[in-house]
Amino acid sequence: MTDTPAVTAGRNKVVSGPEAATLTREAQARGEVVVHCHGCFDIVHPGHVRHLQQAAKLGDRLVVTVTGDALMGKGSDRPLIPEELRAENLAALDCVSWVAVSPHATARELLLALRPDVYVKGREYQHNHDPRFEEEKVAVESYGGRVVFTSGDVVFSSTALVAALEASEDPVRIALEPLIRHHRLDPEGLDGIVAEFRGRRVLVVGETIIDTYVICDQPVVAGEGPLMTLRPLEYRSFDGGAAIIARHLAALGARPTLLTPLPADSRADALRLRLEVEGVEVHSPQIDGPLIEKQRYMVGTNKVMKVDLAPPMTLDARDQQRAIDQARALAAGSEAMIVADFGLGFLTGPMLDTLCGTVRNVVDFMAGDVSGHRSNLLSMRDMDLLCPSEAEIRGALHDYEEGLSAVVWRLLEQTRSRSALVTLGHEGLIAFDPQAGASGPDEWAGRMRADHVPSLVPYAVDQLGCGDALLAAATLARLVGASLPAAAVLGSLAAATEARKLGNAVVGAGDLRRGIRRLREARLTFDPEPAATRSSRHDQLSHSHSPSS
């Protein structure tokens, strides 16, 4: 989207400190009076606007400097707005001529460099003996400049405004508070759980998928009939399926092993190399055909069509038994196994049943999830944790009428599984934990603990991969002995991180720790994606093609 002239002009006002000094001297050489204001300007409120407007009337040019992010002294979560955006906000005001970010703790150095004719502060500084302001005042008077105070007829405090907003009721926090209080899910405890992820050995079994997003121009109607015509502008490919689960585990600190069928071609070799670089040990029974790829065509932020480019794979009985034997051998060196069935033919129902029974006595913990209409949820036997959606459970049991607790009880009974995290889309998830001593459908259903965790992201950019991130984090949490509610919260934080990004982004331990801090403080802080994450060539394999490629 092209910036408007006003926005472009505002950005052109943002200059460096030396540039501001040069512009000031040039203006003074033309006989213009230069006025200078300095501050944090974290939230530009009416008091700031009135202050700057009054200052501008004292001369011909108004230069404003803002304190850099590293030097803000208003609390650990300030500034709320990064320095670049604070500068642009001020530059958008008509009364402001130039804006510069200050690399110093006070304005003293800038005042000596700019030598403005008038230095303007708010009325609150007139009788204030703050030593920092005293230094600034001495600097201005040393070259014959004047210090002037604005009227202060409109008084606001950015710090007070931020505190008031943070104290306002957050519906997500309100919904979480009873769960956190009842289960004593203090931030330090959650941080301690995440710290224990390191070095845990987890085997992941399932199909690998390449999820490709085809970014398209605005659609038009074809001339030959009522058909939508899409023109690709860009292709972005992401590792998906079992591969992204393994990458999540590695980023969370674990030592994952991935058993996934792959073809013998260069694209599969590149995938294997990416995974191994990130700490994933890859074992890949060879299959015919290309990597399984799913393309999603997007117009703006909307997915308008999905295309499966590879047919489901088929394994004969001998290949299935080889895969089961290989899984058992790999599980012998692991603490947990995650089974991810995406309904693409690798994990048939009978094979899943045999796999779970074969590995059950080899590992301490087993977790599973499914995706797709051809997956086999009911064949995941003797699981410690299942992480399906409500729709997947109801579809597997062909039960669309009963209450969710009764349906989940039937799922756990039929699969002989111990607990479930059932996702509900934008409503979050429910952790179902049958209580000891229950027997029979009515008694078990009545003694099933159900804890609701609301969605921890207000608006999902993309829901793809949220379940995979949840499964990885929750499995590790349960593996290290965390309670099911704690695993549910950490899994929800992982899913929320995933939902904020387009495609399958890797969720790591740092993401969980940032989520825990946000959960604890409910601050209105600006939390940009780390540059290292943005630049990581492994987090997103994107490449652009011209329409003729």
What features would you describe in this structure?
- β1 (34-39), α3 and β2 (61-67) form a beta-alpha-beta unit.
- α1 crosses α4, α12 (317-331) runs parallel beside α13 and α17 (466-479) packs antiparallel against α18.
- 40% of the residues are buried.
- Mean pLDDT is 86; it is low at 4-8 and 523-549.
- With 549 residues, this protein is α/β, with parallel strands linked by helices.
- The protein is 39% helix and 20% strand.
- It is built from 20 helices and 21 strands.
- A 6-stranded parallel sheet has the order 12-11-6-15-16-17, with helices on both faces. The chain has a 5-stranded parallel sheet with strand order 3-2-1-4-5.
- The chain is elongated.
- It folds into 2 domains: 5-164, Rossmann fold; 172-526 and 539-543, UDP-N-acetylmuramoyl-L-alanine:D-glutamate ligase (3-Layer(aba) Sandwich).
Task: Kindly list the characteristics that best describe this protein.
single chain; 549 residues; alpha/beta; Rossmann fold; UDP-N-acetylmuramoyl-L-alanine:D-glutamate ligase; 2 domains; six-stranded parallel β-sheet; five-stranded parallel β-sheet; 20 helices; 21 strands; 39% helix; disordered C terminus
